[in-house]
Automatic annotation (TrEMBL):
<dbReference type="GO" id="GO:0103118">
    <property type="term" value="F:UDP-3-O-[(3R)-3-hydroxyacyl]-glucosamine N-acyltransferase activity"/>
</dbReference>
<dbReference type="InterPro" id="IPR018357">
    <property type="entry name" value="Hexapep_transf_CS"/>
</dbReference>
<comment type="function">
    <text>Catalyzes the N-acylation of UDP-3-O-acylglucosamine using 3-hydroxyacyl-ACP as the acyl donor. Is involved in the biosynthesis of lipid A, a phosphorylated glycolipid that anchors the lipopolysaccharide to the outer membrane of the cell.</text>
</comment>
<feature type="domain" description="UDP-3-O-[3-hydroxymyristoyl] glucosamine N-acyltransferase non-repeat region">
    <location>
        <begin position="21"/>
        <end position="89"/>
    </location>
</feature>
<keyword id="KW-0808">Transferase</keyword>
<dbReference type="InterPro" id="IPR011004">
    <property type="entry name" value="Trimer_LpxA-like_sf"/>
</dbReference>
<keyword id="KW-0441">Lipid A biosynthesis</keyword>
<keyword id="KW-0677">Repeat</keyword>
<dbReference type="InterPro" id="IPR020573">
    <property type="entry name" value="UDP_GlcNAc_AcTrfase_non-rep"/>
</dbReference>
<comment type="similarity">
    <text>Belongs to the transferase hexapeptide repeat family. LpxD subfamily.</text>
</comment>
<keyword id="KW-0444">Lipid biosynthesis</keyword>
<dbReference type="InterPro" id="IPR001451">
    <property type="entry name" value="Hexapep"/>
</dbReference>
<comment type="pathway">
    <text>Bacterial outer membrane biogenesis; LPS lipid A biosynthesis.</text>
</comment>
<comment type="subunit">
    <text>Homotrimer.</text>
</comment>
<dbReference type="Pfam" id="PF00132">
    <property type="entry name" value="Hexapep"/>
</dbReference>
<dbReference type="GO" id="GO:0016410">
    <property type="term" value="F:N-acyltransferase activity"/>
</dbReference>
<dbReference type="Pfam" id="PF04613">
    <property type="entry name" value="LpxD"/>
</dbReference>
């Protein structure tokens, strides 16, 4: 899809300096711009590239005054970075603007769905599913029986949603996400084997939840695993049965949260963090990458380490960790000196 500089300026409330009919059909970084591409200049470090870029159109701030000849058409706006972000959002909406039911696909009995559904080929929708308006379900998705999906939610290719799950509005699930798989529940037997504990609960995702590729959220043993409004989960995260994650918490890749742990709101959890089960993590907690959490965490704490402890204490201790060989050598030298003096 092609856009002219004038059309883009209209979207951004900008001013064209150059050819208003210049056409673009792709986006690029300023140093990698080619003919037909749209780019932007917001960081002064990249100003030299505006004189060499082959991009057809460049978004700049109103106060930008070129010092050399330009070959790119300019669109001047109040804030180039925000304007480009707005354009990316608009571009993404246009790109994802699909509707209709592709074949082959399966829609089981008693399914209801709203306006502008897009259902990609080779997808399956189970019995009694309720789907809202403007939902996009890309190819090879599975939706089990009695699932509810809210308005404007997107399921990218290969998402699997098990039965009874409840998905809110304006959610996004990327490829390979699994919602509602069995929790890891087994009981040891007298013979040394393990007996499966039935997992009969469900998963609830509230509105505006984003789930990254290949992340798994297990169904509860009883009750619900709950992901609250605005939570953002990165790729390759494991959320176990009966976990609850508070509003607007963000969790980076390869983190694992064990069963029945409660995480508060507005937390920031780094990559490869391991959180043990049946814990309570407070609100506004920050956990540094690769930390291991084995105890409850109070509101507002910033922690690091494995096992994790207070971030300030960790930082002070780390200075000594790095110097440990020298400290040991100094101690040995002191012991020798003390022995010789004796």
């Amino acid at each position: 899809m092609k856009f002219t500089a004038a059309q883009i300026a209209g979207i951004l409330d900008g001013e064209v300096v150059g050819n208003p009919d210049a056409e673009v059909f792709k986006l690029a970084k300023i140093e990698e711009g080619t003919e037909g591409s749209l780019t932007f200049l917001a960081n002064p470090k990249y100003v030299n590239f505006i004189y060499t870029t082959a991009a057809t159109v460049t978004i700049v701030n109103h106060d930008f005054i070129p010092e050399n000849t330009l070959t790119t058409t300019l669109i001047k706006v109040d804030d180039a970075y925000q304007a480009f972000s707005k354009l990316l959002e608009y571009y993404n909406q246009v790109k994802l603007m699909k509707s209709g039911i592709e074949q082959p696909s399966v829609i089981s009995e008693n399914v209801t769905y709203g306006a502008n559904l897009y259902l990609g080929s080779f997808s399956y929708i189970g019995k009694n599913v309720v789907i809202g308006n403007d939902v996009k379900i890309y190819p090879n998705c599975f939706i089990g029986d009695n699932v509810t999906i809210g308005d404007n939610t997107i399921l990218f290719a290969g998402v699997k949603i098990y039965s009874e799950s409840v998905i809110g509005a304006n959610c996004t699930m990327h490829s390979g996400v699994v919602i509602g798989s069995d929790g890891f529940g087994y009981a040891p037997t007298e013979t040394g084997t393990y007996s499966k504990i039935p997992q009969i609960g469900n998963v609830i995702l509230e509105d505006y939840v984003d789930v990254g590729a290949s992340t798994t959220i297990d169904r509860a043993t009883l009750g619900s695993t709950i992901i609250r409004k605005g939570v953002k989960l990165d790729n390759h995260i494991q959320i176990a049965h009966n976990v609850e994650i508070g509003e607007h918490t963000v969790i980076a890749a390869q983190t694992g949260v064990a069963g029945s742990t409660k995480i508060g709101s507005h937390c920031m959890i780094g990559g490869q963090v391991g959180i043990a089960g049946h814990l309570t993590i407070g609100n506004h907690v920050r956990v540094q990458a690769q930390s291991g959490i084995g105890k409850n965490i109070q509101d507002g704490e910033t922690i690091q380490g494995s096992p994790a402890f207070n971030y300030g204490d960790y930082s002070k201790s780390y200075v000594h960790f790095k110097n440990l060989p020298k400290i040991v050598a100094d101690l040995e030298e002191l012991k020798k000196n003390h022995s010789s003096e004796s």
